Amino acid sequence: MKNTIRDLRAARGWSQAHLADLLDVSRQTVIAIETGRYDPSLPLAFALARLFEQPIESIFFPDQETA
């Protein structure tokens, strides 16, 4: 799943470690989400949406591949 987490984080001047602390996850989790190697759980996706004050669908969007 593609996302805009890296851009949103950078716009706020936050490090990956700082975002991880805010979300109570590891920095490796933030890296994996940003690179699309890990799709966050629904509660984590909602936490990201609240933190960035954006609707989930403006942060996460599916790859263009068909299922």
From TrEMBL:
Keyword GTP-binding (UniProt): no
UniProt-listed SMART domains: HTH_XRE
Domain of life: Bacteria
CDD domains recorded: HTH_XRE
PROSITE patterns to which the protein is assigned, alphabetical: HTH_CROC1
Domain spans labelled HTH cro/C1-type: 5-59
Alphabetically ordered keywords of this record: DNA-binding
Keyword RNA-binding: no
Pfam families in the cross-refs: HTH_3 (PF01381)
PANTHER family for this protein: DNA-BIDING PHAGE PROTEIN (PTHR46558:SF4), TRACRIPTIONAL REGULATORY PROTEIN-RELATED-RELATED (PTHR46558)
Protein's recorded name: Helix-turn-helix transcriptional regulator
